[in-house]
Request: fold
Amino acid sequence: MPPPTKPAPVPTPETLPFWEGCAAGELRIQRCTSCGKHVFYPRPACPHCYSTDLEWVVSDGTATLHSYVISHRAGPGFAEEVPYVIAIVELPEGVRMMTNLVEVEADPEKLPLDMPLRVVFEPRGDVHLPLFAPAGSAA
Amino acid sequence: MSAKDDIVIIGAAETDQLGKLPHLSTLSLHLEGARNALADAGMTPADIDGIATVQSPGPVGIAHALGIEATWLDGTGVGGTSFLFHVRHAAGAIRAGLAETVLITHGESGRSRVDAPGWGRSPQSLNGQFEAPFGVFGPPTAFTLTALRFMHETGTTLEQLAEVAVAQRRWANKNPRALMQDLVTVDDVFASKMIAWPFTLLMCCLVTDGGGALVVTTREKAEARGYDKPLVHLLGAGEAADSPMVSQMPDLTSFGGFKRSSAAAFAEAGITHSDVDHLMIYDAFAHVPLYGLEDAGFVGRGEAGAFVAEGHTSPGGRLPLNTNGGGMSYTHTGMYGMFAIQEAVRQVRGEAAAQVEGVERSVVMGNGGMFMAGATLVLGKSPR
Reply:
């Protein structure tokens, strides 16, 4: 049996604009035109005010490190990455997403909470995944 | 409360053994728990008209296997806390006249995985798109993701996180049925295998096979049957949803499932924290009991770590917590909630291995999924 590959997302109609954005190098999230709040994960109605008037906006690609673990066990396809950082990051708009940290050592000393990050996109299957690197590291 | 509205647990039992049971399928574990609980209640399947359990085998499968023509079914499946939900739903149904006596079963071949459901999630699911691609490998790398934020905002230390495992092992040390009984120190916890920093192996729950079941009815029915064991009364219950994905919790440092369900359960029972003699908080990982203590208001914000480290939840402490040893030391099949209820029932009856003296009221708080859904039960020796 070949070694497992990393799981690749398959977009649904409501998430497709997000994944198309990633392929174009943009972090797109939804904004409710009725209450002004931002929404992630993509969905058809605003969870804050029930409006269906959501528009897609481009976030500036920055985030802060909200929380994380350093996995010492390999998820499917991650055998060569161990140990690796699984993180939850917060965008300036206040929404959060799960991701991996790259271009940084998986060492708690190097990973203070709230450290500034910037998005990088990694091809996976038919999509590009939003991963995050320290804001100061070389592009 | 009238005898016909007073809901009681009349039967409660686990499978004969817990641990590694490759000779028992998921269904067999359910049925062994069911037989033991029915025997405990002095009942046979003919006395049961309602069934509640998770998929699979689900309530139809359990009813059919036991030869019960059930006329009330509940298949609520919100993870390991589901059995607390079932107790609350059964109470409501019985009071509404929809059922008389409900059997709630759990069986899980979590370790041997005999007819265990698969892990697979569709790559189109929200999890498949927004969590699985990042190398999440089950609860040890996802459930744990909130802990650093919790520690950061509450001032909880790594040592205090380890103390949760140390405290629970003290209880397990008094329980011959606990899988892990040897006392451990904070250093032992730190020295155990690193799983997902900051979590080492001893801060994570066990993975076992086992099962258990409950029989729920009214005090009126129990008295009519001449039931001679101490009745365990349901004084209050609550349930609540949080987030289907851990990354989308509104607040990583507080679990709405604990917060809202405990508030509802305490209000229904008409109790305050000082009325609670014994507490069970679902401990899939060491941080979860700290959330429970704070979210239910047993301690103030940022006080849970010190509260545990100072021994207040350990044997002899003022708030005995997870007295079977918990999911980290007693057993954890995957959906541990059933075992938390079982221990609370034993404590209220006065028949636990590590019996706390004078337990009038016990509170059980369950977590389902990874901070996905929560429920709270208040159980008592006397009716409300």
